[in-house]
Write a sequence for this structure.
């Protein structure tokens, strides 16, 4: 990850200067949530918290960055003490968040930041750019892996992701959502998730004969050889592959009619006694194509899903927002809300309570005021993660995050899952929260 | 930018080990190109070369990265000398590339890498992830700015971009494609492009009264105050804004009917004598909405375009590919081609020649074999950029890149520009290249 406090919108920095110049030391609370579903989505998976915590705890304005601001003509009337202040800037606030892998829904606060307003303001852009992206990819991955049923899915999209960092984060998020791993080396190295890789067409083309390219690869990687068989002719490729060694791990089909070719390839492998050799299929796959192949019971063991997964191409952005909900000034709490018809924001700090039935299926969620308590019948989803700027518990392992995510997904009604889903999960706003909203609205109207 | 050689697919590293173990020291040539247009695109703009050159010249395997590979069970049969080799790995090859800002078309090589195959192979994923993303965004930005005509466009999409790095690179690429700047602070700081920023709704909400929030902001930023006026009621907001000072720079409308509100706002500003105050409009804009506003001559001076621009949401991936076209072995050139019907790859090193008429309008391009010369009537677009691993000329400034891009765009037929475009530009494959392709095909078939 790039490490710069400047990975934010410039207006966060101008507002910081404005708050500082006006000596505003209010404690502000912002909440991250989204208002509605994008197309083809019926739930979301929270992802990206680890990177957010890393950023928050390592914020530092370098001398060069401060100098850049000082010389920027927008800041020409900002007094020196602001730039001095930045030199020792630290985040000293609190963060509550749903753990990574949590399933959540529109209107539910997923992350809550409470800090002096000058600090809380700064975090908006970084939090959203990391959280929106990874949550979007984790959610997409869960749809693809759901449709793949008992077959496995590997994220393959680095070359079409939105830059090298997005490629690595896509691998991470896809793992959370249910993929067994990624093709991305950095994601494997940095996040400790399984990274997979064998050969590309260029390897095969680098040799005079396809067969020679297979032999040479097997000599170098005798225990993990998956041969890419479609450079010239897939069926001929599989026939050559089985002659290399009974110990090859499998073949990869990357073009053509994947159903027909997988059936034919399976037969060639089986006839040659390579019952354990697997078939990986890739090439412009998405959840719909995976579903079709599964519906026909194509003998494919692993799907490599690239572009559509790493860019969430059918819904390529996620509208998580970061909204001011409360300000504490002179020990008094002032509730903040927005009243626009389609853009209402409920005031104050909230909690999210999840009600499960005896079969561990989700009945409904309640978004409630922080003072409410439903702990007799429900689980509360937001966890106190950062206190006074310090992280309270270590990050869970990626394996744990994935397990937690998969256990969350089993709580959902089947109608919510996979392609052509229906968003059937009910999210209620508690009566107390509605009353509070109306109270704030009344006060605003009487002004 | 993150700086790690591991920002690549793991299979590039396994193939490297395979090439090394097999003592393959062939010189390979790979070319980057795309086969067809995504929806709503009729040309592309090359972007991202600066980051690629930075990566290529600073490749270094750290001890930790080498250790990661050594312990990875895929590499368990790879001998020690490979890991030793990685310690001093350097890119020593050549790169030819279209300068950033060049307009290009399907089937045209945009970047050509010639190097020992073990080096050239490694670069694929990084080159593609940077080039595909930035070219996609620069192209999108050129469509938005074309529709904005004489009005200006600022890229506003950091919070929905695919992670913090994508946010910064989107700002950079959008500038190349014609935006006057970005909201992203890192892009401003790192790439030296204009970064813009004033206030968000949270600033307004942080005060008891909207008017107070305006006053306080103006006190801190008396020369660059653009007031966000839609937190409560846009028209009332503008009325308050004009009372703050005749010196405010303008107002920003962020919701509602932007045409109606801009007309009304302009009148309020003018009536108050603020003829020079500008109107910025933002809020879920894209090139179609911008066009509609321009068609009605809405008095909007600057458009802030966010999500749709920073994610290229109508065409959220760009299929640039990196294909092996030639191998030099024992001083003999071996041509590499692919013959699949829709996925043909022409063999050998190529050049791209652009023919302009006397009015500087593009007649057509010819993709030619490297031996061909059309310099009497055409300009050749690929520039020798890296020789023996060293960059030949410094990176142009961002201003120069943008100027070059805009001058390229003026060469295009109007039908190619803006929304509802037609891809009218002709790209011919030279006869010599076709003959070469058929020759390679014949040799392949006779094998």
């Amino acid at each position: 990850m790039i490490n710069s406090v400047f990975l934010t919108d410039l207006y966060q920095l101008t507002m910081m200067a404005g708050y500082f110049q006006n000596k505003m030391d209010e404690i502000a609370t912002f909440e991250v949530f989204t208002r509605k579903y994008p197309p083809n989505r019926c739930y979301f998976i929270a992802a990206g918290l680890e990177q957010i915590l890393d950023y928050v705890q390592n914020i530092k304005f370098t001398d060069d960055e401060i100098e850049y601001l000082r010389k920027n003509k927008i800041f020409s009337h900002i007094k020196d003490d602001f730039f001095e202040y930045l030199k020792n800037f630290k985040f000293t606030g609190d963060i509550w968040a749903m753990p990574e892998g949590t399933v959540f829904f529109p209107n539910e606060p997923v992350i809550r930041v409470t800090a002096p307003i000058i600090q809380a303001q700064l975090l908006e852009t970084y939090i959203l750019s990391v959280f929106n992206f990874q949550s979007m990819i984790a959610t997409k991955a869960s749809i693809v892996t759901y449709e793949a049923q008992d077959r496995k899915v590997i994220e393959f999209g680095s070359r079409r992701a939105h830059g090298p960092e997005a490629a690595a984060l896509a691998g991470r998020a896809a793992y959370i959502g249910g993929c067994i791993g990624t093709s991305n080396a950095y994601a494997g190295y940095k996040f400790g998730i399984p990274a997979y890789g064998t050969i590309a067409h260029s390897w095969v083309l680098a040799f005079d004969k396809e067969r020679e390219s297979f032999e040479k690869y097997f000599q170098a990687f005798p225990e993990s050889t998956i041969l890419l068989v479609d450079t010239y002719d897939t069926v001929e490729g599989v026939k050559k592959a089985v002659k290399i060694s009974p110990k090859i791990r499998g073949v990869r089909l990357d073009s053509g009619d994947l159903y027909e070719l997988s059936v034919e390839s399976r037969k060639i492998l089986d006839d040659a006694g390579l019952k354990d050799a697997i078939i990986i299929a890739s090439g412009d796959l998405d959840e719909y194509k995976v579903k079709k192949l599964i519906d026909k019971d194509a003998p494919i063991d692993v799907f490599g899903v690239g572009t559509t997964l790493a860019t969430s191409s059918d819904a390529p952005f996620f509208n998580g927002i970061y909204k001011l909900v409360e300000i504490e000034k002179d020990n008094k709490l002032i509730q903040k809300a927005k009243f626009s018809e389609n853009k209402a924001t409920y005031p104050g700090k909230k909690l999210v309570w999840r009600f499960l039935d005896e079969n561990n299926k989700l009945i409904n969620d309640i978004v409630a005021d922080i003072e409410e308590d439903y702990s007799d019948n429900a689980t509360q989803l937001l966890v106190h993660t950062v206190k006074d700027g310090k992280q309270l518990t270590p990050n869970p392992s990626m394996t744990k995050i994935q397990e937690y995510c998969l256990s969350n997904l089993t709580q959902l009604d089947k109608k919510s899952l996979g392609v052509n889903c229906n968003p059937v999960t009910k999210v209620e706003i508690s009566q107390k929260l509605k009353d509070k909203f109306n109270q704030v609205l009344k006060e605003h109207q009487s002004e």
